[in-house]
Amino acid sequence: MTLSALEVNQLKQAPAVDGVLPVVLSRWSARSFASRDVSPADLRKVFEAVRWSASAYNEQPWRFLVGLRNSSTHKKIFSTLIGFNQGWAAAAPVLILGVANSKFSHNGSQNAYALYDLGASAAALTLQAASLGLTTHSMAGYDQTAARQILEIPDSYVLGAVIALGYQGEPSVLAHQELIALETTPRERKPLSEFVLFAWGEPANLG
Ligand SMILES: Cc1cc2nc3c(=O)[nH]c(=O)nc-3n(C[C@H](O)[C@H](O)[C@H](O)COP(=O)(O)O)c2cc1C
After folding, report:
1. Average pLDDT, stretch 137-146?
2. pLDDT interval class at 1 (50, 70, 90)
3. Residue 154 CA to ligand 1 centre (angstroms)
4. Closest ligand 1 atom, CA of 160?
């Protein structure tokens, strides 16, 4: 029996941890999208959150190509996705490609932190979206060479992930059983002891 969208959203929630931002615990990456569009006002809020992200030298190296449903940019981004992602992302009302300028504007030298900053800004985007009741789903599964060409992205820009944005839909809209199974499986995470260290090989004892 397929779960409802509400039930799926419940089972994807991280367990409550006192003092952790509720939006951090409630965000998850849906593959089912409702037909509802995202308003320009909400899109604006999502990118305001990007705007106030930190970046090396305050370079703000990120650029986001935003494809709204039925636009040529949506079609172009969609055309670069691998088959698996095309199998669910077609219904996303917004497809976004994040890229970052790999050169500092003040002196043209290499910015080794451009992708780091793009990723940090994308984290702000996803959390702001979640706080507005939207879902985001990042994708590395796309053809970067094709995307650079079809979207006319200059050589000095490095490509990040494609992000599908919209409202979570009923899991039954998904095309096949494998996608429904992924949509209805609880999220899993490593324990802190695997990635918070007081020294290499020594898990941090945080009580
Ligand atoms: C950079 C990046 C690339 C990803 N690429 C894909 C992808 O190509 N296809 C896909 O279905 N999910 C993709 N994901 C989603 C991850 O599988 C998902 O974030 C992870 O399983 C954790 O689940 P959660 O976001 O619901 O917490 C990607 C996520 C990130 C951050």
Report:
1. 98
2. low
3. 26
4. 1
CA of 141 from ligand 1 middle (Å) equals 9
Phi/psi at 124 (nearest 5 deg)?
-65, -40
Q: What is the mean pLDDT of residues 170-197?
A: 94
What's the gap in Å between 101 CA and the centre of ligand 1? 23
The closest-lying atom of ligand 1 relative to the alpha carbon of residue 161 is 1
Mean pLDDT of 132-156: 98
Longest dimension (CA), the chain: 59
Give me ligand 1 centre to Cα 85, in Å: 11
Return the beta strands (E) in the chain as ranges.
62-68, 94-101, 135-139, 157-166, 197-199, 202-203
Which atom of ligand 1 has the smallest separation from the CA of 28?
26
Ligand 1 pocket residue status of 86, Cβ below 6 Å: no
What residues contact residue 183 under an 8 Å CB cut-off, 6+ apart?
8, 30, 31, 32, 171, 174
Torsion on CA atoms 10, 16, 19, 23, rounded to nearest 10: -20
Whether 127 shows a pLDDT value over 90: the answer reads yes
Asked whether residue 9 carries a pLDDT value surpassing 90, the answer given is yes
pTM: 0.98
Cβ neighbours around 194 below 10 Å, total: 9
Tell me the residue length of the chain. 207
